[in-house]
């Protein structure tokens, strides 16, 4: 493969923006400045059907490399997804059935294609090579690591100290992720800080198989809409497939202290402009306008400038101007229904318990009036009754 033109500033941007650690930074910088075309790897397990903007951080890093002319390799972990990685978990992740993984990953490549150019990207499913390994080779691979290395990981140590079960299956996951790097001959692997042990295992495995050890770029994890780490299992995500209004509104719901972090990690707004926003916030400028700019940029990335502008106008109309949106989901009930049952049936609440919590917090309105008791009956009308949950949840019932 030929050489690529080098932009030293672009190289430094790749090595610093949205980056927690580079292993080994001097080696990677030297290789990038040499003009060599590197193979850049990212693997994602399809543990849920949707990619969220937390996943966009390493995907954007892949795009950065791609724009410099490097070869990116996107691995869908259809095999590792069944086994399950507990790197960021405080309890054992249950194994997923193969059918569930297959269902989840149906649109993964298309979703990743919202960020990277899939026509210039290698795409693999790691069952291609992991499904062919037998006990003999797995045993040899396992011999490259000690049990002490695995249990020294912070979350595993906490679980052991608490007497929580750690399955032998969990010890195999780093071997599989490491072997992925061998299979595709990775020069660089990107991933979250919670993946550090697994990423390092790739270096060990490549050395064992006679390859040059990959360099590593880790990215910080990002908080979701509730302030906790963004996770599909917690439902606090902003999905890449979200509709423009929903995407814009969810970005507007993040806490003000995350604005700059989101700008840096999940957009490619120039850093000079972000520094200006940061100065504005320090001098007491109302963060709402800056957050709206952030929501606009993110929505534009995954839809269009026109869709982002429309979402911004809809948000202002709904919240700044205190208006109910013109369009909302509709539900035909045909007869009086208890508010608890209605909230669940309309999917404004995932359970009756959550519905009660919303009512207790004054977060439910019927025709503009706050509902204060669980026995409230909603009477359908010909023109429809608007049910509102919080600031952004609406349904019209008939």
From TrEMBL:
Q: What InterPro entries does this protein's entry cite? A: aa-tRNA-synth_Ic (IPR002305), Rossmann-like_a/b/a_fold (IPR014729), S4_RNA-bd (IPR002942), S4_RNA-bd_sf (IPR036986), SYY-like_C (IPR054608), Tyr-tRNA-ligase (IPR002307), Tyr-tRNA-ligase_bac-type (IPR024088)
The molecular function GO annotations come to: ATP binding; RNA binding; tyrosine-tRNA ligase activity
Pfam families from the xrefs?
SYY_C-terminal (PF22421), tRNA-synt_1b (PF00579)
Reaction(s) catalyzed by this protein? tRNA(Tyr) + L-tyrosine + ATP = L-tyrosyl-tRNA(Tyr) + AMP + diphosphate + H(+)
- What CDD domains is this protein classified in? S4, TyrRS_core
Q: Mind telling me which GO cellular component terms the entry cites? A: cytosol
UniProt keywords (A-Z) are:
Aminoacyl-tRNA synthetase, ATP-binding, Ligase, Nucleotide-binding, Protein biosynthesis, RNA-binding
Which residue range or ranges hold the RNA-binding S4 domain?
338-398
**GO biological process terms held by the UniProt record:** tyrosyl-tRNA aminoacylation
> So what EC number does this one have?
6.1.1.1
The organism's superkingdom is given as Bacteria
* Keyword hit for Cell inner membrane: no
Matching NCBIfam families: tyrS
**Protein family (similarity comment):** Belongs to the class-I aminoacyl-tRNA synthetase family.
Q: What is this protein called?
A: Tyrosine--tRNA ligase
């Amino acid at each position: 493969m030929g050489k690529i033109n080098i932009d030293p500033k672009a190289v430094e941007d790749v090595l610093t923006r949205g980056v927690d650690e580079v292993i080994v930074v001097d080696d990677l910088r030297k290789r990038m400045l040499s003009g060599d075309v590197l193979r850049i790897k990212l693997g994602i397990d399809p543990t849920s059907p949707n990619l969220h903007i937390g996943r966009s951080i390493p995907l954007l890093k892949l795009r950065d490399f791609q724009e410099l002319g490097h070869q990116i390799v996107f691995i869908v972990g259809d095999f590792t997804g069944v086994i399950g990685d507990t790197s960021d978990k405080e309890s054992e992740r249950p194994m997923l059935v193969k059918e569930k993984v297959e269902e989840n990953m149906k649109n993964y490549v298309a979703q990743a294609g919202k960020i990277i150019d899939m026509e210039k990207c290698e795409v693999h499913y790691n069952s291609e090579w992991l499904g062919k390994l037998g006990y003999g080779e797995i045993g040899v691979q396992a011999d490259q690591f000690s049990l002490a290395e695995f249990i020294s990981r912070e979350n595993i140590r906490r679980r052991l100290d608490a007497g929580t079960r750690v399955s032998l299956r969990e010890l195999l996951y780093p071997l599989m992720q490491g072997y992925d790097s061998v299979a595709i001959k990775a020069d660089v692997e990107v991933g979250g800080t919670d993946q550090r042990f697994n990423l390092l295992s790739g270096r060990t495995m490549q050395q064992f198989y006679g390859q040059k050890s990959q360099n590593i770029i880790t990215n910080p994890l990002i908080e979701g809409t509730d302030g906790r780490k963004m996770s599909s299992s917690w439902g606090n995500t902003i999905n890449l497939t979200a509709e423009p209004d929903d995407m814009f509104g969810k970005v507007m719901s993040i806490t003000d202290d995350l604005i700059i972090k989101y700008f840096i990690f999940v957009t490619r707004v120039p850093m000079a402009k972000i520094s200006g926003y940061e100065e504005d916030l320090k001098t007491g400028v109302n963060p709402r306008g800056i957050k709206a700019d952030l929501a606009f940029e993110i929505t534009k990335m995954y839809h269009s400038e026109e869709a982002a502008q429309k979402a911004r106008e809809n948000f202002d109309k709904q919240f700044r101007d205190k208006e109910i949106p013109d369009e909302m989901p509709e539900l035909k009930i045909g007869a009086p229904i208890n508010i608890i049952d209605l909230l669940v049936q309309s999917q404004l609440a995932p359970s009756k318990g959550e519905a009660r919590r919303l009512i207790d917090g004054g977060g439910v309105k019927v025709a503009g009036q706050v509902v204060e008791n669980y026995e409230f009956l909603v009477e359908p009308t010909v023109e429809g009754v608007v049910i509102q949950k919080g600031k952004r949840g609406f349904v019209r019932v008939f």
